[in-house]
Each structure stands twice: as C-alpha cells, then as structure tokens.
Amino acid sequence: xxxxxxxxxxxxxxxxxxxxxxxxxxxxxxxxxxxxxxxxxxxxxxxxxxxxxxxxxxxxxxxxxxxxxxxxxxxxxxxxxxxxxxxxxxxxxxxxxxxxxxxxxxxxxxxxxxxxxxxxxxxxxxxxxxxxxxxxxxxxxxxxxxxxxxxxxxxxxxxxxxxxxxxxxxxxxxxxxxxxxxxxxxxxxxxxxxxxxxxxxxxxxxxx
Length: 208
Hints:
Domain Cytochrome b561: 1-162
CATH architecture: Up-down Bundle
Protein name: ascorbate ferrireductase (transmembrane)
Largest sheet: 6 strands, antiparallel
CATH class: Mainly Alpha
Number of helices: 5
Strand order of the largest sheet: 1-2-3-4-5-6
Organism: Littorina saxatilis
Subcellular location: Membrane
Keywords: Electron transport, Heme, Iron, Membrane, Metal-binding, Transmembrane, Transmembrane helix, Transport
Low-confidence stretches: 173-191
Strand content: 5-15%
C-alpha cells in the first residue's frame, strides 16, 4: 500500500507542479487567459494537496526531516496561498486610473509567490524522480518536458521584449480622444480589454 501511495503521490505532484501550474502561469503571462489560468491553477493545487497528503501518509521516517519533504511543504503552502490571495485582490482600477499601493503590492505578492511555488515544485519533482529510482524512460521524459517548459518560458519572454520594443518604436497604437479618455477599437488609454483583464499593448502588462 505504501508503494502505491508513493507512486500516486509522484504522479499527482508531476501533474500539478509539472504541468497544470506552470502551463496556467504561462497562459496568463503571455496570453492573458485569466479564466484558463484560474482553472489550471485550481486543478493544479488540488493535485498538489492530494499528492502532499499521500506523501505524508507514505513516509515512515520523521516527517519533514529531509530536503524533498521540506521543499515540498514550502511549495504546497505557497501554492495554497495563491487562490486565497486572489480572493483578497484589491478592486481593479479603471483603465484611466492609476494602480494604488494595495493593488501594486498584491500583484507583486501574487506573482512572486506563485512563481516561487512553481519553481520549488519543479525542483522537487526533479528530485523526486531520483528518490523514486524511476526507470530511464521516465527520467528522460521528465527532463525533456522540463527542458520544453524552460524553452517555452524563454521564447515567451523574448517575444514579450520584442513586442514591447516594436510597439515603443511605433509610438504605441493611435487612439482617438473622447470625453472619457482615449479610446479606439476597445482600447482605453492604452489598455485593451482582453479575456477578463486589461492588457497594455505597449508594455504588455496586465490589469486583472
């Protein structure tokens, strides 16, 4: 039974921290898919919690006395805090308004906490592959996927930088003035309404 718990623990953690959470984060950062992001993150955290419980149950030695367990508990705690943090999100400013201090702090905490959680989860999943003495095909498959995630992240960041430079070079999109601010084709003062969020086409930043 313990061996089965360990196996399911590993599978759930890989699905959560190795697939759902990083993909959800990438979709939000590069495509502003907020509803897809929320769905992926909730499913990922559920997998992580279930995997964490099975991991605790399957350990016969002292809990949290080794690196894999310590990293795991930190990653899971940070991950669980993200949806709670999202529920405490300060009211989003209107496109023509500036973000307040509370909103700025919230965005930093939410983004930083989420990224650290995912990073620790990926590191711990990689460590878990060795602890489980996985067969070579599984090791190759995991590190191939991990490399693909890193590649997707770098490509996305390069695309963001190039897009930002291109838009700045063009001086941004032309916008016609109105009584309620500059608007054109759904753009208000440089903020374009996207999938549940406002996206600035010049800086490519997002307001939820």
